[in-house]
Design a protein that fits this description.
Elements lengths: L19 H13 L4 H37 L2 E7 L4 E4 L1 H6 L10 H4 L5 H17 L3 E8 L5 E13 L2 E11 L1 H15 L9 H11 L8 E8 L1 H8 L1 H18 L5 E4 L4 E6 L5 H16 L2 E3 L2 E3 L2 E8 L5 H18 L3 E4 L3 E3 L7
Parallel strand pairs: 11-12
Antiparallel strand pairs: 1-2, 1-5, 3-4, 4-5, 6-8, 6-11, 7-8, 9-10, 12-13
Helix pairs in contact: 1-2, 8-9, 9-10
Organism: Afipia carboxidovorans (strain ATCC 49405 / DSM 1227 / KCTC 32145 / OM5)
Protein name: Putative diguanylate cyclase
InterPro entries: Biofilm_reg_signaling, GGDEF_dom, Nucleotide_cyclase, PAC, PAS-assoc_C, PAS-like_dom_sf, PAS_fold_3, Rev_trsase/Diguanyl_cyclase
Length: about 350
């Protein structure tokens, strides 16, 4: 390799001698020797090139810092896993997702302990499939940080291959805990009555249809309508009426813990679905306990009052949902017609005598 003043070979930007240390050595030699126009020209080219490299490095560093700040603010991070060593390289945002100190030397086997059992099983499955096929994968996973918190993260991964063999996995991990909570809340609201927490009419109809499917399990539909509830609303107001509904829903749920579903399907109308193992005698016993619970004094906002309940029920017996519901509804109306606190099936109607009747 010739010196800076040689006429036989030009320095090529980007070649090994173009490193900063080589450049400084050549600059020192040129300053120590006699004036050489070609050497000065080469040095000027080298200075311009080195300045260009420095500007590019500064831009990369600035962009890297901006990306790090943005990813941390967005609760996401970049990750890389080298194969077959399984060595992990994480950005700061990824450390933060797992609640870990930002450091090097993290071990994948240790990180896997952060995943819930179900999420870990799914992760290992889709990861193995992706490495086999050479494709990427996406996965929502539940993790637990050292402080005991639980998060949901969305993992996206790409497989890099060389000569047909996977050599690297890389991608992004993002905190989706709030998104998951919102989704679960929306799903809950889609199937539950907001006031009482019981199943709503939509969820009731779906489960009822399953019980009535041809060849399905079958069961019993019980409809419950509160007695004297309108008077409560008219006398004490709707706010206290709502408290009354919530309290009755609590009592009903406690009595029907073995039921398939307990639902509020209207203003003061409730429905309970029982499975096929529940026979007529048990249904009658449950109905009697529900009426007794409805009659027990209600204490809402410091006011004590009484209501009652009427019940109608019908066995599915392979009937269509609409037909079974009609039978139970007719039995409920028969119970209402018989007087306060009555129980009716499609075949019989009985009135339960209360303290006020005797």
């Amino acid at each position: 390799m010739h010196g800076i003043g040689s006429d036989s070979e030009e320095s090529v930007p980007g070649a090994p001698e173009s490193t900063l240390y080589s450049f400084l050595g050549r600059l020192s030699a040129a300053l120590a020797g006699s004036f050489n126009a070609r050497a000065v020209w080469q040095l000027r080219r080298q200075i311009e090139y080195q300045s260009h490299l420095i500007r590019r490095a500064e831009a990369v560093l600035a962009n890297t810092e901006i990306f790090e700040r943005a990813s941390v603010a967005a609760h996401m991070g970049v990750w890389q896993c080298e194969l077959p060593s399984e060595r992990l390289v994480w950005s700061n945002g990824t450390y933060d997702l797992f609640g870990l100190e930002r450091r090097s030397g993290i071990v994948r086997s240790d990180i896997l302990r952060s995943y819930s059992d179900e999420s870990l099983a799914r992760l290992e499955k889709v990861r193995a499939e992706a490495l086999e096929a050479g494709t990427g994968f996406g996965l929502d996973a539940e993790i637990h940080d050292p402080a005991g918190g639980t998060r949901w993260i969305r993992i996206s991964a790409t497989v890099e291959r060389e000569n047909g063999e996977p050599v690297r996995l890389f991608g992004v991990k993002q905190d989706i805990t709030e998104e998951k909570q919102l989704f679960e809340r929306m799903r809950y609201l889609a199937g539950h009555d907001v006031m009482t927490g019981l199943a709503n009419r939509t969820r009731f109809q779906a489960r009822f249809a399953e019980l009535c499917e041809p060849g399905g399990p079958g069961g019993v539909l019980m409809l419950i309508d509160l007695d004297d509830f309108k008077e409560v609303n008219d006398t004490f107001g709707h706010a206290l009426g709502d408290e009354c509904l919530v309290e009755f829903a609590r009592r009903l749920s406690a009595l029907c813990q073995s039921a398939e579903l307990v639902a509020r399907i209207g203003g003061d109308e409730f429905a309970v679905l029982f499975g096929p193992a529940v026979g007529p005698q048990r249904i009658e016993a449950v109905a009697q306990r529900i009426i007794a619970a409805a009659e027990a004094p209600m204490n809402c906002s410091g006011r004590v009052f009484r209501i009652g309940a009427s019940i109608g029920y019908a066995f599915t017996n392979g009937g269509a949902p609409a037909a079974v519901f009609t039978k139970a509804d007719e039995a409920l109306y028969a119970a209402k017609a018989a007087g306060r606190c009555a129980i009716s099936s499609c075949d019989t109607t009985r009135r339960r005598m209360t303290a006020g009747d005797r």
